[in-house]
Write a sequence for this structure.
DNA sequence: GTCTATAAGAGGATAGAC
DNA sequence: GTCTATCCTCTTATAGAC
């Protein structure tokens, strides 16, 4: 389990990075071959079903990595608001640093393939559900009831996916920073007259 | 100005609809030809620069249509919270009806082309800025100062784009409904101790 | 198990008839 | 102005040598 062949992992790593930024259709197998240095034959040895199978592996890889990121931040900050805010700031940092924005969620793939590849859509759906479950758990720990927690988890997740999209499009971390700043104001509990 | 040739408009309409759902790379010119019934030669007559030019026209078309939707809802509901909530409900309705979700924002294209086509990225950026300006104006009318209004406009926009992505991926209007329900709780003003 | 060469087809784009 | 037939490149996928 610890001595896996490396080629497969390199492929998944490279594919994850490229897909997350340019989307599924925007990345050719040739791009992955070139960037990873792994020849095409090996790709089809490890992923006999081709591009779609590799994409699903990449999605599952990203799912795990992002889950770890979320858990780390949430463990570090016990307070709900601080935890949510800290996580969005980590997203913002990816853009601010001018470096390659890696590890960003799978929104790009989900957006273009939900209607044309059911296996990919299912992989994205499962990923989204798992992330939201972590968010929901944090809301519950902060005292929300289950239904409210689920809705707020959806809200927070939509904020991150939307924020990442805006940051990419604006070529700036500013949208994510603005969102992070507003988090205390958005998620602080208070009585609402129905 | 009122008696424009129809072929061009049909092309833009068809392209808008297909691009919004399946993204830029996911839609071939052949798909647009087939669905619109306009032959390829005519497409290149109206859009000599090809697919990219057509996509930009589609983005600008969607920008205008969505802007009108927003303005209509915002004019109808003077109250900030009610206006924001009503708009998200209109987005949710597109999915709930089981019909083709048309008129949805351009997130899909923005997500995949921001890094590979600067003209398209700019068209998306301009669109996003215009929509956000309308949101910001509504926040200002409700008494927020300009900086706060801009940040909250970003927040609301991210919520809608993220919500649409989740709805597509989950094949359900539920995420958008959950977001709509939470809007009063999210955007109701209250004192926060800094 | 790993890699190269090539097939088979789809994609965007063009030329030129009408 | 409108449409058809065709080109060329790029993409995914495969066959088979090593």
């Amino acid at each position: 389990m610890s001595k896996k062949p490396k080629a497969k992992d390199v492929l998944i790593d490279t594919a994850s990075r490229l897909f997350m930024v340019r989307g599924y259709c925007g990345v050719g197998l040739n791009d992955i071959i070139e960037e990873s240095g792994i020849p095409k034959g090996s790709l089809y040895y490890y992923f006999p079903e081709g591009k779609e199978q590799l994409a699903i592996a990449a999605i599952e890889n990203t799912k795990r990595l992002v889950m770890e990121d979320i858990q780390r931040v949430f463990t570090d900050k016990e307070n709900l608001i601080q935890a949510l805010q800290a996580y969005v700031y980590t997203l913002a940092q990816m853009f601010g640093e001018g470096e390659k924005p890696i590890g960003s969620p799978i929104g790009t793939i989900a957006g273009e393939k939900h209607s044309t590849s059911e296996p990919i859509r299912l992989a994205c759906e499962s990923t989204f559900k798992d992330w939201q479950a972590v968010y929901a758990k944090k809301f519950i720990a902060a005292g929300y009831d289950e239904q409210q927690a689920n809705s707020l988890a959806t809200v927070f997740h939509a904020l991150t996916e939307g924020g990442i999209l805006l940051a990419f499009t604006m070529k700036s971390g500013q949208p994510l920073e603005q969102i992070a700043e507003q988090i205390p104001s958005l998620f602080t509990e208070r009585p609402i007259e129905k």
Q: What stands out?
A: Chain A touches chain B through 49 residues (CB under 8 Å). DSSP finds nine helices and no strands in chain A. The mean pLDDT of chain A is 91.
